[in-house]
Amino acid sequence: MTKKARIYLAAFAFLPISGHAQFGNMNEAQMQQMMQQGLKMQECFGQIDPSAMERLSERGQSIDAEITALCRAGNRDQAQSKAMAFAREMANDPAIHAMKKCGEGMADMLPKIVTESEDYDNPETSSRHICDNR
Which residue, of 4, 6, 28, 77, has the fewest CB within 10 Å? Predict the structure, then answer.
């Protein structure tokens, strides 16, 4: 797998997944359509600036290390604040918007698998703590 492909796959880790059962219910025509959409998505990703993708990957790894260190040091509030700030930063990043646009066709194909991004100001989602996943 190429470095570029690994970066794209890492980017999809940001997409929330609600379940995998939908794949088993697809017929052959739906699977073909999904594969064609996947090729379109791959082509679309190929048009995104690789340096922007690399920047996002490096920034994500750096923030992850900082948050992990804060959690291990018992600085839960600071870790949570850093995670929320990073989520907002990513939500406003042009490369993330481009990736989301590339993935829109797949979201249409699999509406129950790919969901909208969480609302980070929503009390329901903000009650989750970043340190609980570490």
Answer: 28
Identify whether 21 is part of a domain. no
Contact 105, 33 (CB under 8 A): no
Q: Is 100 a domain residue? A: yes
Half-sphere exposure of 33 (CA within 13 A, CB side): 12
User: What's the number of domains the chain is made of?
Assistant: 1
Q: Could you tell me where the beta strands, DSSP code E, fall in the chain?
A: none
Neighbours of 50 (CB within 10 A): 12
Question: What burial class does residue 82 get, using C-beta atoms within 10 Å of its C-beta: 0-12 exposed, 13-18 middle, 19+ buried?
Answer: middle
Determine the structural domain holding residue 126 and report its residue range: 3-13+26-133
CB atoms under 10 Å from CB of 114, counted, come to 18
Better-scored residue on pLDDT, 112 or 39 = 39
pLDDT tens, residue by residue, 15-65: 444 444 445 677 888 888 888 888 888 899 889 999 998 999 999 999 999
